[in-house]
Write a structure and sequence with these properties.
By secondary structure, the chain is α+β, with helices and mostly antiparallel strands. The protein contains five helices and 14 strands. The protein is 17% helix and 36% strand.
Length: 201
């Protein structure tokens, strides 16, 4: 077993170890609305559940040389964002949204995705996703030493949108969702084989 102190590593090396180890990672496609009304969209694999009471999710938005990304800026402005679960049906278009565009250009429009009006928040979502969650911004937590290196967005889910084909008796069929997860580099993973283990009593 090789032991490596992260303190002696560069940020890039720590990044490579983390994304190569913590796999597969679920992908959130997040839409936000700028002050000027531009619909921003970006994928994030530093994403997960925070709590179910009330339902909350987290998205970690990495800064670039200390500068906040549009997603963090817009979420703070509107106090809302939409989280979409990445699935096979629109993964190629989602990948296109990772391009860095100026704040006055929409990644959603550039990638050919279809905006759809939200019901409880002002921020539109996209039609292509089989699951989307309208979220109010519960809290933004800047993290990092000295100068913040990321903004941790905590969103409270105020409305779920779930495709009828996935939903049955209050549950979601994972095989019908066909989720896509992130690995390292340019690699992604599909759901793959599923198995069940009973929890010990």
């Amino acid at each position: 077993m090789k032991s490596i102190d992260p303190e002696i590593l560069s940020e890039r090396d720590n990044y490579k170890f983390l994304i190569g180890s913590i796999i597969p990672r679920p992908i959130a496609f997040v839409t936000t609305l700028s002050e000027e009304g531009v619909l921003n969209g970006a994928p994030f694999s530093y994403f997960n559940i925070v709590t179910s009471n009330p339902p909350m999710v987290s998205v970690s938005v990495q800064r670039i040389n200390g500068r906040q990304k549009d997603t963090a800026v817009n979420a703070a402005h509107k106090k809302a964002f939409v989280v979409h679960i990445a699935d096979e049906s629109y993964i190629k278009a989602l990948n296109q949204t990772a391009v860095r565009l100026p704040p006055d250009e929409s990644e959603v429009e550039a990638s050919g995705l279809t905006p759809v009006k939200s019901e409880k928040i002002d921020v539109p979502g996209i039609k292509e996703a089989k699951i989307r969650m309208e979220c109010l911004l519960e809290k933004t937590i800047p993290l990092g030493e000295n100068e913040a290196s990321c903004d941790l967005l905590i969103g409270r889910v105020v409305l779920y949108h779930i495709s009828e084909e996935l939903y049955e008796n209050g549950r979601i069929h994972a095989d019908r969702l066909q989720p896509v997860s992130r690995l390292a580099g340019s690699y992604y993973a599909k759901l793959g084989e599923m198995f069940s283990l009973e929890r010990p009593k």
